[in-house]
Amino acid sequence: MSHTQPHDLVQKSTETHPVNAGFAQKVWDACIEIIRGKINNQAFKTWFTPIRPLHFADNELTIEVPSQFFYEWIEENYSRYVKDALKEIIGSEGKLMYSIVMDKSQGHPVTIELPQQNMATAVTTPIEEEEHREEAAERERFRKNRQKFESHLNPKYTFSTLIRGDCNSLAFAASKSVSQNPGQNAFNPLVIYGGVGLGKTHMMQAIGNQVRENAHSSYVLYVSSEKFAIDFVNAIQNGNIQEFSSFYRTIDVLIIDDIQFFAGKEKTQEEIFHIFNTLHQSNKQIILSSDRPIKEIKGIEDRLISRFNWGLSVDLQPPDYETRKAIIQSKLEQNGVTLDSNIVDFIATNVTQNVRELEGCIVKLLAAHSLFNQEIDLAFTKSTLKDIIRIQAKQLTLDTIEKAVCSYFSITPNDLKGKSKKKEIATGRQIAMYLSKELTDSSLKTIGLHFGGRDHSTVIHGCSTVSKKMEKSMEMRNTVEELKKRIEIMSM
Ligand SMILES: Nc1ncnc2c1ncn2[C@@H]1O[C@H](COP(=O)(O)OP(=O)(O)OP(=O)(O)O)[C@@H](O)[C@H]1O
Q1: Count of domains observed in the chain
Q2: 201 CA from centroid of ligand 1 (Å)
Q3: Which residues are CB-neighbours of 456 under 8 A, at least 6 positions away?
Q4: Domain containing 86: what range?
Q5: Best probe residue, ligand 1, of 168, 198, 256, 320 (max atoms within 8 Å of C-beta)
Q6: Measured in whole angstroms, how far is the alpha carbon of residue 481 from the centre of its chain?
Q7: Inside any domain, residue 349
Q8: Mean pLDDT, rounded, for 65-73
Q9: By the 8 A CB rule, do 433 and 462 touch?
Q10: What is the pLDDT of residues 75-89, one digit of tens each?
Q11: pLDDT over 80 at 352, yes or no
Q12: ipTM (interface predicted TM)
């Protein structure tokens, strides 16, 4: 990706009028190009596309945001990215001002202007004891934050914000144990693996944050494999390899995310091998994550694989329904929002494989609520989330589910509704009931009647059998996912 060079822009700013909407647009375009590469697409679209650059003067860029909520959200969650981008484009003297639209009903929008918080100039206060204490506390907070930033740990990723369920209980317990006794336990390295968006980064960083909380002086470093590999190549090119190697050998807790990216990178693997040996021998803790079990990563040297297997490998599974609900509730609480249980149920039922996507739904819903100033009910939820949740429960009929299941298992509707206990027929029947419950509003009684005049307890049993099998078996999860896709297409 090529960014506008900072110097190009600064030069133009002195040549043209300083207050210049066109120039503000250019600065902002360059900033959002940088931000776009750092945050997920959904969040980018939700929070950055509605922003309008207004003007640029005296190194200060003013952007218009559509509401107070928007301003707070960006400050809370993305301020660091905006600040870094501005620094890259304008230089360290660059400042940001928000123009917040408070009321649009007056013909022309009523706005207030606020500076970006962590760029605001310090206020001079009278020298009184109380204020001295406050300043000292502020400095201490800053020092802690700075250390955390250097560790590249997100302070929000803690154990208290990580919901525990059957899907992650072993990993959770192991991570807690490591965080209490880093380097002095049998779980070294601790390897956490699992699919996309299931909480690997959150869990690893929760260990790091906990270690930092218990022992401020511990040096914890979180690094992605990609960054490690890039820094390593740069160190070789710049003749700093000695410094690079020594730096990594000083770390107390080294957290490396997504080690599958080391595949095929022989030199990087060699460096990791030596760092690993030094840290492990000095009882320093190593924590790794991967999108698959270590033994399934191709292109990593055997001697490294064997070391990665010295400690404990734990997996993360997609969360079950109850855990999904608990995660949604917790994210809502963090945002100080409550929603009706039917809305939580709707999201938990339809977003099943990825916690990041669950979060995306909440963020989008709250953003739309703030933008349109409309009450969040089920209809609003469905229409707002239609890009993410494409199955519209009410459009689906039990006949559609019946057809999809029969065709998938190559059985007839009579088989499905009959009494046969043959494996694929009984499984197909239970999956059909499960999908009917999950994807439609039909009652248990209606579902039972449709699939061969069975009573509601048979439907409950069928649904819970499928849920349990899905938790244990990848094959069952794939079958249900594939059927959902087919049903979605059939009901379009
Ligand atoms: N059990 C959980 N409780 C609360 N939040 C969770 C949980 N699992 C995941 N999350 C949230 O989901 C989002 C995605 O998690 P995270 O980035 O840790 O996933 P990941 O497995 O590292 O993903 P990737 O494979 O893309 O690197 C994060 O915001 C995280 O806080």
Answers
A1: 4
A2: 6
A3: 443, 444, 445, 447, 448
A4: 6-119
A5: 198
A6: 21
A7: yes
A8: 78
A9: yes
A10: 877 888 888 898 888
A11: yes
A12: 0.99
